[in-house]
Amino acid sequence: MAAAFRRVCGGVTSRVSSLSCSQQRSLNTGRGVLPRPRPLPLLLVTGGGYLGYQHYRRGAHQEDGAPPLATPTEVALYRSLPTRLLSRAWGRLNGVELPTWLRKPVYSLYIWTFGVNMQEAAVEDLHYYRNLGEFFRRRLKPAVRPLCASSSLISPADGRILHFGRVKNSEVEQVKGVTYSLENFLGPQRRQRNDSSSSFRDLLLSSPDNDLFHVVVYLAPGDYHCFHSPTDWRVELRRHFPGSLMSVNPGVARLVKELFCLNERVALTGKWQHGFFSFTAVGATNVGSIRVYFDQELQTNTPRYSKGSFHDRSYVAVGDQVLNGAGEGGVALQKGAAVGEFNLGSTIVLLFEAPNDFKFTLQPGQRIRVGEGLGSL
Q1: How many Cα neighbours within 13 Å face the side chain of 368?
Q2: How much is the average pLDDT of 96-105?
Q3: What are phi and psi of 279, to 5 degrees?
Q4: How many helices (DSSP H) and strands (DSSP E) are in the chain?
Q5: Is residue 156 a contact partner of residue 350, using CB atoms and an 8 Å limit?
């Protein structure tokens, strides 16, 4: 029996050894070497399937018509997607010069898709814009955005009003019913001596007779992408928060709590005639580039960053851009002056101190343009 077994094994061995090298490689591949797993497609498929199932399950039990918040697991899955890398790639694509013959078809498709009004553009000829980036950041004719003289505060951007009102309990609403922490959004503030207040909101107020207000403006892809100063004020500090680049579409803002605190953002803080004032540009998917004209050192959507970190820059006297008087430095911005731009479109959050009788002249969800009034005393 043993001899017969050895003869059979020997025959098999001799036949295998007589195979060509390519045949042996095919045999080995089919027998023991499996294709290497690809983690990114697996993550996308698995995560997408899980999110779809959760959305279906929540929809089946939904009673009040408002979608429930995403779970921490769902948010973590979303944040694990390479949105920062994709945004940098999109930025490079935007800088690629298009052939002259291709510009009009490409831009016309974009205009039709997002409802862009090219009659307001300073240059209406589509062949003028060498790449998508230049088209996104197109300038407007001077007369199409007049400033409202009767309002002490004007819209800093074209877009849609997501939410506005008073800040209560140091919590701010990003959309109706979904809040985020004021401290997480702006970062730590210096306490004054003998200040025992435990409220972060109270730290920002210069007078007990004032209150803290906020307004959120969402810029869609078809909107004008530059942002302007909403009032006369002095910028004293720039705080840059690296972070995720999740979509800030209102639909996503209703699902992800503290979305504005998780995303990359640039907060400009300082003072206006009534006290504390801040202007924050929030990044989003494909909006990794936030540019502030008077700050050439600002670099957003860098490849690496430390989670939860932020970078401060205190402004000092720079020529005629600085307010002189009380000996304080800062960059003086006039009402309506151009401040910076997004690479595509995103969100502006204004947080400001004002007397208690300040009144907004807005409606939730309304369309608004640069220069139109937000409210007044």
Answers
A1: 30
A2: 94
A3: -130, 115
A4: 11, 17
A5: yes
pLDDT higher than threshold 60 for residue 197: no
Residues designated as active site: 158, 228, 346
Helices 39-60, 72-80: inter-axial angle, 10-degree rounding? 150
Tens digit of each residue's pLDDT (9 = 90 or more) over 114-166: 899 999 999 999 999 999 888 988 999 988 999 999 999 999 999 999 889 99
d(CA 293, CA 339): 6
pLDDT, position 86 = 84
Contact present, 315 and 237 (Cβ < 8 Å) = yes
- Please, which pLDDT band fits residue 288 given cuts at 50, 70 and 90? low
Mean pLDDT of the chain: 80
End-to-end, the C-alpha distance of the chain in Å comes to 105
Which residue from 175, 304, 303 is spatially nearest to 248, judged by alpha carbons? 175
Q: What CA–CA distances, in Å, run from 252 to 69, 87, 167, 301, 369?
A: 10, 18, 22, 21, 23
Ordered DSSP codes for 96-149: SPPPHHHHHHHHHHHHHHHT--GGGBS---GGG--SHHHHHT--B-GGGS---T
Residue 26 CB neighbour total at 10 angstroms: 12
